[in-house]
Amino acid sequence: MEESIISVLNARVLRNVFGDSDEHLRTIRKAMGIRVITDKDKIIIRAEDPETARRGAYLFEQLQRWADQEGGLLSSDDIQRAISEVQQDGKISSIQPIEVYGGRRIHPKTAGQAKYVEMLRQKEVVFCTGPAGTGKTYLAVARAVEALRCEGIRKIVLVRPAVEAGESLGFLPGDLQAKINPYLRPLFDSLADMMQHDMLQQYTEEDRIEVIPLAYMRGRTINSAYIILDEAQNTTVSQMKMFLTRMGNNTRIAVCGDVTQNDLPAHKKSGLVDALVRLRHISGIGQMSLQESDIVRHSLVQKIVNAYEIPTGTTPVQEERLADVPGEEAVSLL
How do residues 292-309 score in pLDDT, each as one tens digit? Predict the structure, then answer.
């Protein structure tokens, strides 16, 4: 039996790592195949082989660090993601957290997200694609808030194309602003998670935060700003060109979208798909593709994404057999 020993940061952190009624601890023991013993200010990890003991010790070190930085708010999904990364790569993605307001830090939860955040810090224009729940827009908004807080950016501009996803804007009640609010609400939700309501309201009134439909970008040049285009798969080629050429001095751009959820008419080419090919070799522009393994919403979201990638027409038996298989592997099994 091999053994590794690490120090306990403090009792509060340890309680949050172990979870309510040791729920997280039981999950870790079962998944990692280790024994865990606490002795005063130490955690003793025992396993059948040295590598498993080492990975177990590393896992607890990183979870303690997360719990300490995040105030102890570790969810069961956080535990599962950490276990998965340690088992696959022997380490948990580590990168400087994004600093937003109120002393809050936002940590990338997967290796893909860590690479994305690093790219957002290094490149002036970043394209990020991936399925729902991978944090494409949320992390870009967090990075924009961080830049607004401490890097001399004057404003944040959040943009969405008002494309009708099976609904008609004309039949929605209210004036134009009321009609487009449902399209812009997800961006406000991300902002509201990173700053207090009074500050968000003040910054919006002062025009330091602007949330607008894509059509309102035409004819503008925006300087000293962080501009984020969400749902970019719903732009046309001409709209994407118009958006990207709004970039002024000291401005950064993040373009986020899911190429599998295009709501454009069938005869319209997606501006996001076109730009990924057209701009791929330009220095200063980064491209990141997040995968199903980067999904960080409720654990069911990843299963739902996988299920929708299983071809229609499969039998109930096939569907049950493939339900927990990643989409690309599922297709290959049929």
Answer: 878 876 667 767 877 887
